[in-house]
Amino acid sequence: MRIVVALGGNALLRRGEPMTADNQRANIRIAAEQIARIHPGNELVIAHGNGPQVGLLSLQAAAYTQVSPYPLDVLGAETEGMIGYIIEQELGNLLDFEVPLATLLTQVEVDAKDPAFQHPSKPIGPVYSKAEAEALAAEKGWAIAPDGDKYRRVVASPRPKRIFEIRPITWLLEKGSIVICAGGGGIPTMYGEDGKLQGIEAVIDKDLCSSLLAGQLDADLLVIATDVKAAFIDFGKPTQKAISQAHPDEMEKLGFAAGSMGPKVQAACEFARLTGKPAVIGSLSDIEAIVQGCAGTRISTAQQGISYL
Q1: Rounded Cα gap, residues 174 and 13, in angstroms
Q2: Any catalytic annotation for residue 206?
Q3: What rounded mean pLDDT belongs to the chain?
Q4: Which of 103, 119, 192, 298 is most buried, by the most CB atoms less than 10 A from its CB?
C-alpha cells in the first residue's frame, strides 16, 4: 500500500509538556517505532504538524530585538528541516541501512483572497492562561482564541491549492525512499501582482494539506496521527464516546471544533470522498494498529452510518 501518515504537531510536542528538543525527539521516537513496523511492503510518505514548533521559534525570534522577527513562512521552512532531521535520524536507527530517507522542503500555494486571512483560526505556539494570553496579545498584536481550558495565539490558515514539489515527491517514492514532506502544511506561498512566488504570513492546516497530498499521490490510506485514540463525541465529558467507523456524511453532522478535531475530520472526509479510500484518525502510538484496521476512527464511503467503540 501507499500510505500517507500525518503526524500532529501537538503529538510531537504534547500539550503542557516543556517544548524541549529532548521531549520532541522522545515523541518522534514513538512515531518512528510505529512507522518502522508498517514499512515492510508499503510505500510511506510522512507529513507533520508544526504549530507548537513554529510558535516557539516565533517567540524566540521576537526575543532578539536587534533585527525584525522572521516571517512565518521562513519559520515554517525552519521547522520542516528541524522535524524532518529528527524523523530521519530516529527512523534510520530502526530501519535497514539501505532504506533511503528524504526530507523535502515543500512550498504550497494559497489564495491571497482566501477569507481565512480575515479570520485567524490556526493555533500556534504554547498554551497560556487567559490572563497571560491577553497580556501577550496586547503587547504583540496577536489574535488569540480558547484552546480547551487554555488560550493560544491564532494566525490565518488558508486552504492549500497546489503542492509545488508533488513531482519530486513521486520520483522519490518510485525509487523506494520514505519521503518526509509538507511539514506544517507546507510553506505558505502565493503569487504576487508581479507574477512572482513569495511567502505569506500564515500557517496552512497540516491535515488539509496531507489530504491534498494523499489524493495527488493516489495513496491507499491516509493516517492522521494525533494525541488522542480516536475522534470522540462529547469529548472530555462523562458522556464521551469514541467513534469506530463512520461515513463522511455522518461525521460532518457532528460539528467538531474548528481549532482541534474539526480540520482532521474535514481532511479525512475530503480524502475519503475524493478517492473512495479510507482515512483513519487515531493516536501516534497506535499507527501500526491503525494500518491493521484495529484502532482509531475509520472514515470511509464504503459503509453507511456510524458506529462507536
Answers
A1: 32
A2: yes
A3: 92
A4: 298
- Per residue in 111-132, pLDDT (tens digit) is 999 999 999 988 877 788 999 9
Q: Which of 85, 47, 284, 79 is nearest to 180 (CA)?
A: 47
Out of 125, 186, 264, 282, pick the active-site residue: 264
10 as an active site residue: the answer is yes
9 has catalytic annotation: yes
Would residue 122 show up in a list of annotated catalytic residues for this protein? yes
Q: What is the pTM of this model?
A: 0.90
| Residue labelled with grid coordinates 507574477 | 195
The whole-number pLDDT of residue 259 equals 65
- Residue ranges of the chain with pLDDT lower than 70? 259
Q: Which residue among 9, 49, 51, 282 is the active-site one?
A: 9
241 is catalytic: no
- Contact call for residues 242 and 295 (beta carbons, < 8 A): no
Is the distance from CB of 33 to CB of 94 less than 8 angstroms?
Answer: yes
Residue 50 makes CB contacts below 8 A (sequence gap 6+) with 9, 76, 79, 80, 83, 183, 184, 185, 203, 206
